[in-house]
Amino acid sequence: MTPDVLVLQHIACEPPGIFEDVLREHGAAITRVELDEGERIPAGRTFDAIVAMGGPMGAYEDDAHDWLTDEKRHLAEAARAGTPIFGACLGAQLLAAALGGRAYRGEEPEVGVLDVELTDAGRADPVTGALPGRFPTLQWHNDTFALPPGAKRLAGSPAYPNQAFRWGDAVYAVQFHIEVTEPMAAEWAAVPAYAQALEAVRGPGALDALLADFAVRAPAMQRHARALFERWFALVSSRAGSPAAPAASRAAPGPPRP
């Protein structure tokens, strides 16, 4: 059976990137919904999995973006029904809020190519355990979240201790980005809200420096993205009744090198 995956986007320049490569390589059927463009989640349709990506809005800005209320409701209902979900950045904040935690403005932006470290639970987790104990990420956010009840904290950074969590068996959320391709990074640099957050932290000229740093560390991040998402998609595939991965992927040795 081919897994049917719902991808929720909140800005065109934040598709799933490397994560989408994994979905396509495994033959997943993708239904993409651009919520910020007025598209709506298909009513009455059940998906095998959901991927919720990032965006420039806050997960708490329902007054400005009324579709956020429906999205959070949908995520909560799907999670509680046992649907595997993967959220990145805004997607993680939305999941936290939907499941009884809280998304809110942080004390300062976290922007740049920065390391994240797994917790003991993260190292032992069947999905995040695919990552090294410490690994590079692209951070570009000012918001954060409080863990929902029952969640396990899987990773943290010096600025924001809540960088990843698991809720239940197959709902995963990561604050950081490792799925970004080089063209995506260039598109992000052109988003005013993202550029302003960067300059607020690092000052004029920081954009060029960040892109140069990203270019150096992107290959490692993308390897880690693939390893992480392969593990999560194996959960999706097993529940959908399809093979977890092609033979070549199943034969890959443990965690990738940093």
In a nutshell, what does this entry contain?
The chain is of the alpha/beta class and 258 residues long.
Topology:
Layout lengths: L3 E6 L8 H8 L3 E6 L14 E4 L14 H14 L4 E4 L1 H9 L3 E17 L1 H5 L9 E13 L5 E5 L7 E4 L3 E4 L7 H8 L2 H11 L3 H35 L6 H4 L8
Parallel strand pairs: 1-2, 1-3, 3-4, 4-9
Antiparallel strand pairs: 5-6, 5-7, 7-8, 8-9
Helix pairs in contact: 1-7, 2-3, 5-7
- How many distinct domains? 1
Name the strands of the widest sheet in spatial order: 2-1-3-4-9-8-7-5-6
Q: What is the rounded distance between the termini? A: 34 Å
Overall helicity: 25-40%
Pattern of helices and strands: EHEEHEHEHEEEEHHHH
What class, by secondary structure content? alpha/beta
InterPro entries: ChyE-like (IPR044992), Class_I_gatase-like (IPR029062), GATASE (IPR017926)
GO cellular component, one term: cytosol
Organism: Capillimicrobium parvum
Pfam families: GATase
Give an overview of the whole structure.
The protein is an alpha/beta fold and 258 residues long. It has one domain: 3-Layer(aba) Sandwich (Rossmann fold). It is built from eight helices and nine strands. It has a nine-stranded mixed sheet, with helices on both faces. Helix 2 links the parallel strand 3 (49-52) and strand 4. Helix 2 crosses helix 3 (90-98) and helix 5 (182-189) crosses helix 7 (206-240). Residues 242-258 have low confidence and may be disordered.
Name the descriptors.
ChyE-like, GATASE, 258 residues, alpha/beta, Glutamine amidotransferase domain-containing protein, disordered C terminus, Class_I_gatase-like, Rossmann fold
